Amino acid sequence: MDAVPELYMDDTMGVTPELYMDDMAEFDYYMETGSMDSIPMGDIDGAAMAMGAGIFVVWFIFMFALMALMIASLWKIFTKAGEDGWKAIIPIYNTIVLLGIAGKPWWWLLLMFIPFVNIVVAIMMWLALFKSFGKPWWWILFFLVPVVNIIIVPVLAFGSAEYIGPDGQKKDDGNTPPQTPHQPEETIQAENQNPIV
Predict the structure, then answer these.
(1) d(CA 85, CA 20)
(2) Which of 100, 124, 127, 146 suits 52 as a labelling partner, its CA being 20 to 30 A distant?
(3) pLDDT by residue (tens digit) across 92-111?
(4) SS3 145
């Protein structure tokens, strides 16, 4: 008989050397065959299994609802910016459209595949997006806080924010005449009196 560890020799544990040897024989069988199908489930209580299944179902419902909220929020952000809402449900393409709304080049998407750089690029993109809807720069602080970042996107989408233009610049609707910089009247008179020949 092999040496039995002291843990199994302790009378307060209620484990005898015979039980230890039985456990070791079962363990050896599982290790040799690689089969875990016949592991006795007598130690696992049915209530614990039900509780685990319930937690999984609740988590699944929560994640599905969160995903639906984010899709609806992106859809609304796209429509506010004059884009088709269906573009929000196409992976990768929705990021390209979001970059366009924020006034950033499409190739920033490639930067999002580089570790650590993607964090900086995402922050800059969302900052530009917030500016595109007339929100102040400090809104990015809300976006960086866990749980609050789940709320800030729907607030932007379903709130009163209106799309100003890429990166907060006024969008040109084609009806506004180009503005010339204002020159003081003295400068205009001086140019008319002293023409350069």
Answers:
(1) 64
(2) 146
(3) 999 999 999 999 999 999 99
(4) coil
Q: Are 91 and 71 in contact (CB under 8 A)?
A: no
Using an 8 Å Cβ cutoff, are 87 and 74 in contact?
no
pLDDT mean over 50-62: 92
Per-residue b or e along 47-83, where b marks 16 or more CB atoms closer than 10 Å to that residue's CB: eeeeeeeeeeeeeeeeeeeeeebeebbbbbbbbbbeb
- Tokens 């809104």: give the residue: 139
Instruction: Give the pLDDT band (50/70/90) at residue 46.
Output: confident
Positive or negative: CA dihedral 153, 155, 158, 164: negative
CA distance 194 to 197: 9
Number of residues that make up the chain: 197
Domain boundaries, the chain: 60-168
Is pLDDT of 78 > 70? Answer: yes
Given a cut of 80, whether residue 179 has pLDDT beyond it is no
CA atoms lying within 13 Å on the CB side of residue 10: 5
In angstroms, the CA 115 to CA 176 distance is: 43
